[in-house]
Amino acid sequence: MFRKNDAHRQQGPSSSQQLLPKKLRQCLENSWAQTFYDEVFCRIDEEPFAVLYSSQPSRPNTPINVLVGMDTLKAGFGWSDEELYDHVCFDLQVRHALGLNDLGVALFDIRTVYNFRRRVREYAEETDINLVSQVFDQVTDEQLAAVGVQTGWQRMDSTQLLSNLATMSRLELVVSVVQMVYRTLDEVSQARWRERLAPYLTGRPQKVCYPIKANEVETHLTTLGEVLVALAEELAVYAPDSEAYGLVERVLREQYQVEPEGKVTVRPGKEISADSLQSPHDPDATFRVKGGKVYRGGYVVNASETCAPENPLQLIADVQVAPNRTDDGELLARSLDNQAEREVEVEKATTDGGYTGSVAEAACERHEVELRATRMRGGQSSADRLGWEVYTWELDENGQPVRVTCPQGQSAPLEPGKGKERFMARIDPDGCATCPLFNQECRVQPRKVGPTLYVRLRSIKAAIQRQRLRPEDKPIRAAVEATIRSLKHPFPGGKLPVRGLIRATMVVCCSVLMVNLRRLHAYRQVQAEQKLAA
């Protein structure tokens, strides 16, 4: 049965604050723990979590704000579950941060935390609502309002985080899938398959594949493909809605070519999509190469941070977690959508070139946000041709191009071309006759009907975006890179301690809460020093 936790607001006789000497009590109240208690713990709205518990009279739940607070501290400090539990049991600062000041009250078992995470994950799988992500939004919105942080100007950056997975070869991946599916079968089915799968059930996938020679890998992959086809046929009859059947179907689709007559061949490596399964233990994690670095099985995290110069401090206002193949422009669109739903006002966004493109531009137009990119994705025009950005483009109220002016001042109306989203402009031949750029760098082409400019709509939009680049924003955008490092700091090697998109989102949101908390604590300390100086 769900019950809100208000007990922390009352101090009992065995409270740590009552037992500590005055000087130590003051130190505790001036520490990060007090800031966490005020700015995170007390702000957590427990009501949305009531759906996880029975409505019938029964044993009350463990306090939600304590459980969410524990996961926030774990993510922020990079603790293991064992370290987290030890701190909650014996660390006065941690106990104070979580409102557990009464030393005489027995603490719940660590398994309660595991069960809570499982319930949140299962609820998110059923409803697509991540309750911990909602806590981040709710707490952050209250912090922004309390401190008076202006959200109109934000900067964004993204980073890669790996799932808690072992790197697998292609053969190890298929062996792992076969082992996982085998474990889901009932005893009768396992007995029927045991002899055929025996060579692949002798240990962990790495142990099974290690003795196999390189020239034998293709043969084993083909054999396993035939096994997967047979398993798929059986599961289609007995368990068509099972995760095992979906897993087998996905591997067959991504790794093999299955002919109608049942012949199985291994797909060439170049045909394997980056969205393909990287591990059966985390179907959401994907593959990406970025900046020359390979990220095998991970997620992309996008942080939107306030950056208005008049703010007393800057906070991360929004965060997204997605499979690492997700484009930065899509992440920007999601961020603007989410903040609009929360009624967080955003007027301009400073980004790097990764956030430019049609998706980001459309999102900014929809939310009336000025995109202030410091550079732009895509190459420049060749040295012997003028870039489209040196031309002046006039748009109508619907954003459609209606007129173009060349660098030499020749202007002409734009007309629809022969193809979709293509335009053309007839330029005055007298002006082109004396132009030193005509038939040279200029994009205008000589035609029988006269000099003509041909251009695609996308080229026009890209040119306008390039004209709007704000290189002067580079120092402003650069600061968000330090924010990204703070967010990733608790995860050595950029590897999360969890698997799955839902759990990854929960951990990242908790880490970001701690980044904001540290800034709020530093801000409080400055305020206290200024008050003393006055």
Explain what this protein looks like in three dimensions.
The chain has 19 helices and 14 strands. The chain has 534 residues and is α+β, with helices and mostly antiparallel strands. It starts with 15 loop residues before the first helix and ends with a helix. The radius of gyration is 29 Å and the shape is flat.
Question: Topology, please?
Answer:
Blueprint: H1 16-19, H2 22-29, H3 32-39, H4 64-77, H5 81-90, H6 92-97, H7 111-127, H8 131-147, E1 153-162, H9 170-184, H10 187-197, H11 205-209, H12 217-238, H13 243-255, E2 256-258, E3 264-266, E4 286-290, E5 293-306, E6 316-323, H14 328-341, E7 348-351, H15 358-367, E8 370-373, E9 392-395, E10 401-405, E11 411-413, E12 415-416, E13 422-426, H16 429-433, E14 452-456, H17 457-467, H18 474-488, H19 501-533
Parallel strand pairs: 1-7, 7-8
Antiparallel strand pairs: 1-5, 2-3, 4-5, 5-6, 9-10, 10-11, 12-13, 13-14
Helix pairs in contact: 3-19, 4-19, 8-19, 9-12, 9-13, 12-13, 14-15, 18-19
